[in-house]
Amino acid sequence: YQRSGNNKYEYLKSFEVEDKLMQSTWVVVRLDGRCFHKFSDKHEFEKPNDERALNLMNACAKAVLEEFPDIIFAYGVSDEYSFVFKKTTMLYNRRSSDIISTTVAFFTLCYNMKWKEFFPDKDLKSTPSFDARTVCYPSTKIVRDYLAWRQVDCHINNQYNTCFWMLVKSGKNKSEAQDEIKSSRSQDKYEILLKQFNMNYNELPAIFRKGSCVEETAKCNDNGQPVERLTSKVVIDHPDIIGDEFWVDHRHILKG
Ligand code: ATP
Ligand code: ATP
Ligand code: MG
Ligand code: MG
Ligand code: MG
Ligand code: MG
Ligand code: MG
């Protein structure tokens, strides 16, 4: 048959929907583990935070950044990761379905292949997989708000989960623990941890409190212009990305 040009099958192309993402916007792919509540139970993740599972997620995200050079930044917490593509990316001509499917497939495969590296003592009992979507954000302010939103979510969930699991580990059953903290404010939870468990929430590891950022390091000159791209490498860290400080020091990431 003819591979292209008019033939009797050509009309089938017209059933495909256009899903090209808006130009000049930052494309974010957010993926999330499917049924990881169950998956983490089945594989006996430590609660509330299994550090090896987080390190596995981070290693997969790092591999994604190394594979897709147009991704300039990634932020991850729990079973989710957000990948920010540069504003000018023309990857797959900005077709959403191709960008989503290749990113999430690559990440999923890494997660499965690297499992034994992080859990040498545990066999995979089911096949972990992830869903994903794309969202376009049109300004640096909005991209920053997006990332801040995910980090605020990390904080709220982690503080709740830390409190919940401390109560459970101290002998309460799950519904008692839930009742005790269901209408508590952030400050109340901080005090429960401090007074009942002598635990200072602010001293917990940053990877739990702040989530993880993945970026390509680039040495910057005084104008914030990256130099020495060739010597750059992908690094993982757990900074605050809500305030201005990180973004002042890392101006090259959202430069446009
Ligand atoms: P869905 O398929 O709708 O995303 P889900 O079960 O994955 O359902 P999420 O809201 O994504 O629900 O929550 C992920 C859950 O996975 C957490 O609530 C937690 O129980 C578990 N989990 C993920 N990562 C870890 C980790 N590093 N340590 C402990 N538990 C984890
Ligand atoms: P794209 O990333 O755009 O999909 P591509 O190189 O994968 O680019 P396709 O049009 O998908 O291009 O074509 C797949 C190519 O892979 C085929 O042209 C062929 O060369 C090769 N290929 C795939 N399956 C086989 C196979 N079973 N045996 C030999 N070659 C294969
Ligand atoms: Mg989901
Ligand atoms: Mg999930
Ligand atoms: Mg999730
Ligand atoms: Mg193709
Ligand atoms: Mg192909």
TrEMBL record:
One cellular component term from this protein's GO annotations in UniProt: nucleoplasm
Start and end residues of each tRNAHis guanylyltransferase catalytic domain: 9-138
Needed cofactors: Mg(2+)
Catalysis performed (reactions): a 5'-end ribonucleotide-tRNA(His) + GTP + ATP + H2O = a 5'-end phospho-guanosine-ribonucleotide-tRNA(His) + AMP + 2 diphosphate + H(+)
Domain Thg1 C-terminal: 142-222
Compartment(s) where it occurs, according to its Swiss-Prot or TrEMBL record: Nucleus
GO biological process: tRNA modification
Keywords annotated in UniProt: GTP-binding, Magnesium, Metal-binding, Nucleotide-binding, Nucleotidyltransferase, Nucleus, Transferase, tRNA processing
EC number of the protein: 2.7.7.79
Origin superkingdom: Eukaryota
GO MF, any single term: magnesium ion binding
Functional summary from the UniProt entry: Adds a GMP to the 5'-end of tRNA(His) after transcription and RNase P cleavage.
Family named by the database record: Belongs to the tRNA(His) guanylyltransferase family.
Protein name, entry field: tRNA(His) guanylyltransferase
Organism: Papaver nudicaule (Iceland poppy)
Residue window of the full protein shown: 60 to 315 of 320
